[in-house]
Amino acid sequence: MLFAKLTPAQNEDVQNQLMALLARQAELYTMGESSSIPTETAQELLDSILYTLELALLEGGRSSTLLPNGGVKPAFLQGQTLLEEKFNLAKQLFLEKRRSNVLLDDPLYRVALQQDLPKFFHDYDWRYFAQRSPILPDHLLAEPLGERRGISYVLCFLQNTP
Amino acid sequence: MDAEKKGALTPAERETALLLACNEKTERMGLVLTPAQAMKLLEGRENALRANGRVEFGSGILDKLILAFYDSPFLDPHCYVDTLLELQDMFYYYKGAAQERLADDELIEMMRAFYDGKCKGSLEYLSGTALEALCRETDCRRGRRDENGEER
Question: Within 10 A of A161 (CB to CB), how many other CB atoms are there?
């Protein structure tokens, strides 16, 4: 669990910071033109924030104990930097794989490389919906995609395709 | 508790104060909200948001609705609060019905224009006819833009 090491008081502090960050993300998402958003959109924005924070904690070397007392936003910004780096790396890998045509004999991979991934790279929005992922075939992968989501899922797919 | 200790206002108190501050402008039209009426409007906001599957950050749109409608010749001071409650309900409903394509200010401006114009102060007509037509038109405009390949 993301905040498992926190005390109840720290947890409450982090929850308050998360709500403030969600309000800020909603404002940016609507470009300040709407004071309210659909519940589903709010839920997705919150999922994206948690996904981004998780990335900062798991891959950015940041401890969850640094989140209380104003630590959520710096962690979130670090997570966003990591997301952008991963996105650029994944896109580069995708273009290489597509150029090489290695996998085009497999019909599922052909669909992934020619349809699903181009759409993903066109639509993916790491600022607001970082957790979104396409459905990709993993039957030829050395490492299963498991519970991964978002750009981590796509990057794992591309790094492990034969 | 902490907010009280520091003398700061709670979010509910802040929102109530924001609505009561509108009285300065509206009282010349005979429209004055009491604290109890402001609370009723804020409760109505919670219900309207829940009923329309929305969440809101910040102080909402009630003050904007008040300032947009207070000088309408059709606004009856005896039905002031009930009218605001209905306008608020309508606002959140049509934000969703227009599929988030209308900014708050844009929708409020259109509501006022219809209310004073073809609706002649009828909330029923505003809700059931004029705004429905507006949403259809917004949908059509978007459809046309898609066919032309422009960004939505």
Answer: 22
Q: How far apart are CA A81 and CA B18, in angstroms?
A: 38
Cα A52 to Cα A44: distance, rounded to the nearest angstrom:
12
The residue among A113, A28, A121, A41 whose CA lies nearest residue A76 is A28
**Nearest-neighbour CA in chain B from A48: distance (Å):** 17
Residue A34 with chain B: CB contacts under 8 Å: 95, 100, 103-104
Which residues of chain A make contact with B58, given a CB cutoff of 8 A?
23, 35
Residues 6+ apart with CB under 8 A from B2: none
User: Any CB–CB contact under 8 A between A36 and chain B?
Assistant: yes
What confidence tens digit (pLDDT) does each residue in B114-132 have? 999 989 999 999 988 878 8
Residues from chain A contacting residue B61 (CB–CB below 8 Å): 35-36
ipTM for the predicted complex: 0.83
Per the CB < 8 A criterion, the answer to whether B115 and B74 are in contact is yes
> B30 in the Ramachandran plot: left (φ > 0), alpha (ψ -120 to 50) or beta?
left
Cβ proximity of A154 and A136 under 8 Å:
yes
